[in-house]
Structures are given as C-alpha cells and as structure tokens.
## 1
Amino acid sequence: MSSFAAELPTLPFFVLKTLFDQTPLTTDDGVVLRRMTLDIGVVHLVLACLSVLGHHAPRQTIPGFHQEVSYLLVVL
C-alpha cells in the first residue's frame, strides 16, 4: 500500500484544517467560512466520505446522502 493510500481517509480533514488555519476564527472571513461549512453540509460530506473510506457505518443516516457520497467516491 502506498503512503498516499494510507493517508487518503484523513485527507479531507487535513484540507479542512488547512482552510481553517488560513482563516482564523478571530476574523470575519473565518467566522463566515465555518458557518458555510456547516450550512452547506461540508462537515457532513467530509464525515460521510471518511465513513465510507474508513468502512464505518454512519451514526445518523440522512436519507439518500450516504448513497450519494458512495456514488461520488466511485465516480472519482
């Protein structure tokens, strides 16, 4: 297994962390970024992707959402 494959399940967290680090919560942009990640479902998408890649069952199912994420991962 390549090192990239081993890091793939945590990559979305690192990307989100990088965005959050670049826009601190103490700025208006930081607050807007965090609100948008919750409002448009980025956090749910990241968690759903991680559950699929990590082979974990979702704790709370959102009708159709888990299937869409699985489809998107297959297409990618």
## 2
Amino acid sequence: MQFRTKALGLGIVCFVAIAAAQSQQPARQTQQPGEDVPASADKNRSDLSQDRNAPRFDAARFIKDHDKNGDGKLSKEEMPATAQSEFAQIDTNKDGFITKDELQQHATRMAQQRPQLVEVIFYTIDFPEEPVTMQELQTAYDQLRKLDKNNDGKIDESEVKNFREQRKKERTEAIISALDRNGDGKISKDEARGLWADNFAQLDKNGDGVLDRQEIEAACAMKRMANAGGNNNPNRNNLDRNNPQPEK
C-alpha cells in the first residue's frame, strides 16, 4: 500500500491512495492479548485485498491526458512537473520514454510498498471517519510523545530502540498474564491455547516443557517477520493468529 504524495501528480495520487485504502484498510476491531483472531477475520482481510471492484490507477488514461504529441508514450517533458524526478525510475528500459506498461508496473510497485508514516497520517486527515479519526490521531500523538524521553522535540535512534524494547516486554507480559494460570511467569503445555498449543513443541526451544519470556519474545518476533514477508512467506499462516483465548 502506498499513499505517496509526490508521485505522478495529483491524478495518480488519488487513484493509488483510494485503491490502496479500499484494498488494505485495517479492520476496526482490536485484538487483545490472549485473544484468538477468528478465521473469518483473516478471510475478510484476504477478500478486501483481492477486491476487483476497488479503483485502480489507469495508466492508459494518464498517458492520454499528458501525451502532447500523440505518440502514445510520455517523454520527461510531458510528465507533470511533480513526477519528473521519478522519470528514470519509471522508465525501466531506459529508452527516454514511459509506456503504458511501464507506468502501470510502477503504480503496482508503489501500491505494494509499505506506506510512510506521514502518508498514513495525511490520509487519515484527508479522509476522516469521525469519531475514529480523532481517536487515532490522538493515540498516534500520545505514542510519539512517549518516544521523546528528553522532551527536546525530536526522536532519536536510542529513544526508538528503548521504546521498542519496552513494547516487547509489555507484549510478553500481556501474553503471560492471559495464559499463565499458576502464576509462575511461564506458559506450560497445559496452559497454552490456540496456536500457542498447536506450535508448542516448535516454540519450546530448550525442550523444558514450558515457554519462558525469551521463548515468547522469540515467537512474537517470528510472527512479525512472517507478516513482513507477506502472503508468500511460508511461516505466515503458522503464526498469524498468535494470541489465543485463555480458558475461562
């Protein structure tokens, strides 16, 4: 998904932003630690990402709108001024012109990239969903302020690293709190639920019959790497529904 604000002028920005939003808009339900994600939720996300009715960038129309000499392709001079800096990137065969196929391929690559954080913020502002928008912006603002420990108005690498470690510990403690029934700070095989139980042997690296904090953190890291790998990552389906519902 990409809401890039400088790419190919306003026309492609709107098309790509709308298509990306409709195909990858996250569900509003929040998953709590110790809660299993219903299979239907995964299916809904998959259905959204494959929605053939979502708007797509029309490369042929874009070329028609900017092709001044009518040769069916765009020179750098014919490109909108805001997109000329990306001409070399779009012109993959380096012949000095951009064809419909090159333009469409660039739009597709752009839509598959991770969005820059500021672009998500701008999108949230430009396409408000009251009252969710204000809640989301306030939450983002509050979290960014937490990063700035010395209150100098800037976020440095050490502050990000420390906050990342803090969040890792919070996630681990939340999972243990949800599943650890005997209060020993670990998850035994009997206490494990959902995919924690299904993958217990794989996650129990030292084979001692319990999952300690280090093994739980490693499992969460595996989930993040699987998610980063996308649908083609073989580990993704194994870890997608990571936090199971503890037994009542």
## 3
Amino acid sequence: MQDRNSNIPVSDYCDEGTSSKTTEQATATVEELKGRADDVKEQLAASGKRTVDQLDAQREPAAKTLENAARRLQESGERVSTATSRTATTTADRLQTTADYIREKDIRTMMDDVQNIVRRHPGVALALAAAAGLLMGKAISDRNN
C-alpha cells in the first residue's frame, strides 16, 4: 500500500502493527459514529411521533370549537336581515365542513392535502403564508407591549 500524497510505500514509515492498529481505531470510530447517528435518528423519530400525537390530540378540540362557532353563526343569522343571514349560514356551513374534515382526517393526510394545494396554487399559498406571518408578528408584538 502507498501513501496517497506520495509515492513512498506506507510500509517504509509505518510497520504492520501500526497500520493494523490505525485501521482498527478508524473502524471503531466509524462504528461509534454510526451508533451516535442511529441514536440521533431514533430521538428525532420519537420527537416527530410525539409532535404528531400532540397535533392529533388537538384535532377534536379544534373541531368542537369550529362547530360551536358554526352553531352560533347559524343562531345569530336567524335574527338578522336576509343578506346577513345568508352570509352567516354560508360561513357556518364552511366552519362545519372544516370541523368535519379536521375530525375525520389525520395529521399526515392533512399535510398531504396542504402540500397538494400549495403545488396547485403556489401564489395564493405564498400570499396566505405572508398574511399569516404578518398577523402572527402583530399578535406577538401586541403581547409584548
């Protein structure tokens, strides 16, 4: 075997024992790094699963909140003018549809649906993301003041 940086054979400045020991150390280091990488991978997977489980746990409360808002809109729509009533009813129906969707779909399915919508309508998705960012920034700013 020769040193990569010169034409001097490794055996000229390194005996077999040293070469073998260096190889063993390198192998041990690689195995240790693989073990650490596996540990990190497992920790990330567990963290991701916990996050998905937490999001899944929030689906039902979110659906109930939307249903309650839909019901209140329906009730208030019955007490106002016809045009306002139609708007309240339409909004209530959409909230109910959203509540049903949240209740019926798991987080992974919802994420797939969002990704498909973003692919089909990137401009709208970008505008909504910007608006959401502005609203969140304003909310955080107001909370700090």
